[in-house]
What does this fold into?
Amino acid sequence: MTEFLLDDLRIVGSRVDGGVPDGDPATAWDRRKTSYRLVSPLNRRKFTVIVVGCGLAGAGCAAALGELGYDVECFTYHDSPRRAHSIAAQGGINSPRAKKVDNDSILRFVKDTVEGGDFRSREADCFRLGEESLRVIDHMNAIGAPFAREYGGQLATRSFGGVQVSRTYYTRGQTGQQLEIAATQALWRQIAKGSVRLHTRHEMLDLIVKDGVTRGIVARDMVTGQIQPYTAHAVVLATGGYANVFGKSTNAMNSNATAAFRAHRRGAYFASPCFIQFHPTTLPISSPWQSKRMLMSESLRNDARIWVPKTKGDDRPPNDIPEDERDYFLERRYPAFGNLVPRDVASRANALEIKDGHGVGPLHNGVYLDLRDAIARLGVDVINERYGNLLEMYHVNTGEDPRQVPMRIGPGAHFSMGGLWTDFDSMSNVAGLFVGGEASWAYHGANRLGANSLLSACVDGWFTLPVTVPNYLESLLGTEPLTVDDPAVTATVNHVRAGVAHLLDRGGTHPADYFHRQLGDVLYDECGVNRRADELTDAIDRIQKLRKEFDDDLRVTGTGAHLNQELEKAGRVSDFIDLAELMCIDALDRDESCGGHFRVEHQTPDGEAQRDDAHFCFASVWERPTEPGPYIRHHEPLTFTAVPLETRNYKTR
Amino acid sequence: MKITLKIWRQPTTETPGKFETHEVTDAKPDMKLLELLDHLNDTLVTQGKEPIAFESDCREGICGTCGITVNGRPHGPVPNTTTCGQHLRDFKDGATVRLEPFRSAAYPVVRDLIVDRSALDRVIEAGGFVSVDAGTAPDADTVQIPLHVAEAALDFAACIGCGACVAACPNGSGSLFTGAKLGHLSLLPHGRQERERRAQSMGVQADEEFGHCTLFGECAQVCPAEIPITAVAALNHERLRAWARRYRGPDNAKRSKRKNASHGGE
It folds into this structure.
């Protein structure tokens, strides 16, 4: 039955070429860069490039292109570029600079990243990530990020999950903030110089494509409501990830998929949308009004023990549950790693306990993260020294002191490894549309390693896009961007205006948030940490019904001619609903387990993810049909030469 | 618990605003203030009314997007905490709570509780950066920075740009914000070559956008990033230092550039 349904939902397409040069993946980036065409300094100002998004990838790309002399238009829906969600990253940024004698190297970095992603990323991409990371640290340090230092004044590093060396650079627990502020300062420098024009409070609502070539975007001024086209020689999307499709995630309230998904509607392929990372230690939902999943750092698992009551539905206060009635399930199942198993493994184990009825808290949707034994062993002062600010954050947010009562945590949607498909030049299948950072699918495969997300955004923004975009622009020398009265431009603008008007006149009864919450419930229930074919088909059915309900019963108050947050939300939720359907189709289509995508039908006898390399060693590349009908699933085969295919094993390593 | 909200409504910058009263009877003590507004907005939209416009994003206190005046105090009753970190348990059951936008001449109201804080960005644009192009930086390990210096820079760099300091100040001064950036960048070796120019041009821009500082210190009491009041001293110190080093401002940029060149920078 599943097979039958799947065939109704998607058609198998053809092979897509990622454009990686043949031969050694370690030198692929160098060879590719050398082959790129250049634009001479005097010609650069003749090219206009639109960059959408001001996070680490967007701000970096806009600033770097401005430094080179291109004419850049930069868009953000925030009031200031510094607000982009890159700012919320805590842990750090990886770089195999190999200054220490712990025997790190670029190859080891690639091995960790490829294995961490469970062999579903492009090997050559990972080499680029490692290689360019060296300059990223130098650059971010020089433009104002005060990295942590040793007493001798050298850069300090720490260790992160899935890695046996120390290569994570950091600034306290606010690495993302310091990198983002440094990057946006560099952007302001270009704005002051006049090479970048910044459009704040502008939301991209469509991509202008003519004859298969990207020619600009349509954006709405969120204050005046004016909808306008902006044309250019190329467009860069650096609009972040889509974990907010789950309604409540660790993402910021406004993080959304609209820019990327509307590009997808215009023909850009979407790669592996079902690859979502669930972070094992986020605050569970304790109440219907809770607005998001707050993240608790992975580092807590160094000293806190995760457990659930052995008896299902045991509602006694945790401190009243005696030792022999507690199940320290991670230590039981993974004696070698205990509480420090990788993110996807921990999330999966937590979710299984909750699903089996052992969940704790008022809604039985969490597990305990308990510092009791560590406090007894080390004393409360040592624990405060190590985790004081985190414990305070938990205390403030829950009203419970984790030094007295165990914390309650659960898996929450956190990062999207999937995204718009790009080739080795970071360009999508639509010519002139480039994608960087979390909005693209590159680097992370089916599971991202900690501290690799800030890195991939910085590498794309500062060191990849500024060389790949000019290679494309060179062929356009002597051409002008489309004029605003070009039929392709006016048609797109009219399409956007009609879409906005349509959202405004549904005349239903429920606000957009109402539908977003339901969408999140469907996904957490049936396309979450554990996935099963029958549940996924049910999810698709529920999402299609929700789509209809949304179309019939949405209510947007106010008009489109002023600042209208309900209108903004409605457009985003509409895209999330369609994206959620695609995610579930992708999860159903990928009939294997890998990384964060765990199909319960495919597990080893001891419950680990079982890949099917014979049938699924590829990135799924989805094309949206122009007429109503099934999606087309193309594939980009993935080959591994430097890091040979093997089964991930964190038990004995 | 029951909360009566007196909320500032203002459709656009040009139209006059007024307070509007809403009662929420099913509030819970562990709700956050912004979740109460989410909840109220849900009800308003379902009734066909326009929701209250307010801004927030990360809801973890780091992005600086949120910021409203609660009972006359920027961000809310709990000191040094963003609006998104304020909980109803810090209000009395039955309380009347007044919610207004950040109040400052430098922050025009955009709509309801949303203000335009671009004045802060214009101060950064004036010189709050390091002029190093991508790819041209020296190896970060070749320039040592003592731990205590990096930490001191980080104390200033922690600013989240929420702008509560300006709203809290009776003079509407942006000295804490401007000083934090000058303090941060002056402590680091990179960008020292443009230290005088930066101090001068950011100082002049801050003078244009904001009021003067008379050291009330209310900025530091509301600052969610706990920027030390010494940031104000950093601003004055940096400006005085630029003056003493004969840096004569953007108008004299050419002359100074020549002078600096002859001195081989700093």
